[in-house]
């Protein structure tokens, strides 16, 4: 039996009896950039937290490489970047990277090998010795991304990674996502941004806790006979109708 990289099977989640995810199922079989697209409150963060093993599904399973989450061993294979940055503001950027890399079990030599490459990718070379307290929102996002990448995870889960990042750097970061995918990393990314959605290999469209459509951006547009991902989303949500 081949093991899917990620298998989501009838995942449901309720908080205090209120359902926020319906019965969600999908699988990622090979490295790809999989986008989760949906309006605020649709359930994207809840779903990625279940995949990352931070939240447990109320019903159903989320399995990584055939092992149900949450599972400590599998969590080491994951890089997770939360929506709000979990950084130590009294430490410098470098100290934050060293701290979190050590938590992931990276040796000093590995940290030394990775750090230059990663900070160049997120364009923070000049800011490594500054305290995070003096960072802008976009700089904190970039540092969080660097930390999620340090242990070379097989699966990278990014919750709105480019919020507050300017378009030039955003493009550079997306180019890096493509390179990571080419080297075998699977990337799951939540976004509201339509031009980012277009860059994903496949998209899962989420609305009110339900997966309303799944497919490549081109397939979703051609299936709905629409010109944009935004219109395709509205079509699947029942707001826009075919001519
Ligand atoms: N810990 C919690 N307790 C109760 N309700 C929660 C909790 N976390 C999320 N919710 C609710 O679940 C629903 C989905 O939230 P979620 O954060 O997953 O949405 P989202 O699609 O990521 O939105 P956004 O794009 O704004 O981040 C919302 O109605 C939210 O209020």
Top keywords for this entry?
9 helices, Rossmann fold, binds adenosine-5'-triphosphate, six-stranded mixed beta sheet, globular, AAA+_ATPase, alpha/beta, 243 residues, ATP hydrolysis activity, single chain, ABC_transporter-like_ATP-bd, ABC transporter ATP-binding protein YbhF, ATP binding, four-stranded antiparallel beta sheet
CATH class of one domain: Alpha Beta
Listing every helix as H and every strand as E from the N terminus to the C terminus, the arrangement reads EEEHEEHEHHHEHEHEEHH
Q: At the fourth CATH level, what is the homologous superfamily of one domain? A: P-loop containing nucleotide triphosphate hydrolases
How many β-strand stretches?
A: 10
Provide the CATH architecture of one domain: 3-Layer(aba) Sandwich
Query: What is the CA-based Rg, rounded?
Result: 18 Å
Mean pLDDT across the residues is 91
Question: N-to-C terminal Cα separation, in Å?
Answer: 44 Å
Low-confidence stretches: none
Structural class by secondary-structure content: alpha/beta
- Distinct small molecules bound, one entry per kind: adenosine-5'-triphosphate
CATH topology of one domain: Rossmann fold
Global morphology: globular
Fraction in helix: 25-40%
- Strand order, biggest sheet? 6-7-8-3-9-10
- How is the biggest beta sheet arranged? 6 strands, mixed
Total helix count? 9
Q: Report the β-strand fraction as a percent range.
A: 25-35%
